[in-house]
Write a structure and sequence with these properties.
Rossmann fold, 3 domains, alpha/beta, DNA Cyclobutane Dipyrimidine Photolyase, subunit A, domain 3, Serine Threonine Protein Phosphatase 5, Tetratricopeptide repeat
């Protein structure tokens, strides 16, 4: 009997429970990936992320063909059409069961419930697995039985689950199926932006992960906040598409400490905590449906009088604010479809607390540009920066962009790379160059668009008033 494996954010063969169980239980296995074009547009998929998806699907198709599993591409407009489309595919292939790994955002959960109900109604089995997270939502709870709203206690509970459950050993696909030779290139419709510098097969990406954890992770705690260094793993696009599983990373870290998840050095421990942050935000998205509707976690902050100034917002998106570290980050985003995480925090803080522009505008713009755009992590990061989220930065902590620039890019190397107008500016002026440039009659680089001290005071005063009224 045949089974269908529905691939979504799990474009891999290793550590893929749905695929492994289907191969173990059925002689014939068919893989399917579903394209929902208009749904993706509503979810603000970035052109560069779409391009990377296309490339990774072609790699996946080749890998599956080696295992004798064909990959079918189904296209429709919206999630709501998928129950009928998947049923038709299963009936056409003579499949008795559907296998899939769970997704956790609200609309994806509703999509899967609808598919499950429709297929079961027509006599099919549906099997769902949790192989995209190390700890699934609902698995860690407070003493009161509720979900964690603060990261630190969540992380402690998360580590305990890893300690108790351990990390499964990698599996081999069961069964022998003839290799498929006639594989055709997959082409996605819609706007795309070249992601060739990022793309790589599952094997290549796993090698990148292994090399990072072997050679670079020990310096991660001290070097991760320096944007001029290539000190982060740059694997975030592949976590998002599921080319590698968190389980693979945990297994490699486990080899560094017999007491895993405890006993790691500072660098590996800090990097592991970043995986936990990723899961924390996915758990929140699962527990708090309103986050999927553009609402703030802290309800009282909805009353903040955010500005909706298109002109100022445009200057921010173009990297023309007059604050070099902000402009460098925004220009990197435009060119690469990616931005260093520390700089993401700086530019988000600037938009919300210096320009007082609605965090939702920034959240959406990031999703439209980022190759690693993750709805849960992006929402969590923006609400953290705007002080509207759970466990967010306190409202009175307003980043000084000039001081941040001096701390994370002291010699201006990152700024000079992305802001070409400032290439020749001396280090002593690179973080606040306006007086230096004007004294020389240079006007290519804009003046600062706000006075940080005044903007900070207005934000704190207004936010404090809201907090006192709640």
């Amino acid at each position: 009997m045949t089974a269908v494996v529905w691939f979504r954010q799990d474009l891999r063969i290793a550590d893929n429970d749905a695929l492994h169980q289907a191969c173990a239980n059925h002689e014939q296995v068919v893989a399917v990936f579903t394209i929902t074009e208009k749904q993706w547009q509503e979810h603000d998929w970035a052109p560069i992320k779409r391009d990377l998806l296309q490339r990774q699907l072609n790699y996946l198709q080749q890998d599956l063909a080696e295992k004798g599993v064909p990959l079918v591409i189904l296209s429709c407009d919206y999630f709501r059409q998928l129950p009928a489309e998947l049923l038709q595919l299963c009936q056409k292939r003579g499949a008795a069961a559907l296998y899939a790994n769970r997704d956790y955002p609200l609309h994806e959960v509703r999509r899967d419930r609808a598919v499950n109900a429709w297929l079961q109604r027509h006599g099919m089995e549906c099997h769902w697995f949790d192989s995209n997270l190390l700890v699934k939502p609902g698995q860690v709870k407070t003493l009161n039985g509720t979900y964690y709203k603060k990261f630190t206690p969540f992380f402690k509970a998360w580590l305990k689950v890893l300690d108790a459950d351990g990390i499964d050993a990698p599996q081999s696909l069961a069964g022998q199926r003839p290799k498929i030779n006639n594989v055709h290139s997959i082409e996605l419709a819609g706007e795309k932006k070249n992601s060739a510098a990022w793309a790589g097969s599952e094997h290549v990406v796993r090698d990148r992960l292994s090399r990072f954890l072997r050679e670079e992770v020990n310096q991660y705690k001290t070097s991760r906040d320096v944007p001029a260094l290539d000190a982060t793993s740059r694997l975030s696009p592949f976590w998002e598409l599921g080319v590698i599983a968190p389980r693979a990373a945990a297994r490699l870290l486990q080899s560094q400490s017999p007491d895993f998840p405890y006993g790691l050095n500072e660098g590996p421990h800090t990097w592991l905590s970043e995986l936990a942050w990723r899961e924390f935000y996915q758990h929140l998205m699962w527990h708090v449906p309103k986050l999927s509707y553009g609402q703030a976690f802290q309800e009282y902050t909805e009353a903040y009088p955010w500005r909706h100034d298109q002109s100022d917002f445009k200057r921010w998106t173009e990297g023309r604010t007059g604050f070099p570290i902000v402009d460098a980050g925004m220009r990197q985003l435009l060119q690469e479809g990616w931005m260093h995480n520390r700089v993401r925090m700086i530019v988000a803080n600037f938009l919300c607390k210096d320009l007082h522009i609605d965090w939702r505008w920034g959240e959406r713009y990031f999703m439209q540009q980022l190759i690693d755009g993750s709805f849960a992590a992006n929402n969590g990061g923006w609400q953290w920066s705007a002080s509207t989220g759970t466990d967010a930065v306190p409202y009175f902590r307003v980043f000084n962009p000039t001081r941040q620039s001096q701390q994370v890019d002291p010699d201006g190397q990152y700024i000079r790379k992305w802001v070409k107008e400032l290439e020749q500016v001396p280090v002593k002026h690179i973080h606040a160059p306006s007086e230096y440039l004007r004294a020389r009659g240079e006007t290519d680089y804009p003046l600062p668009m706000v006075e940080h001290k005044d903007a900070r005071e207005r934000f704190i005063s207004t936010f404090k008033g809201l907090k006192n009224e709640k």
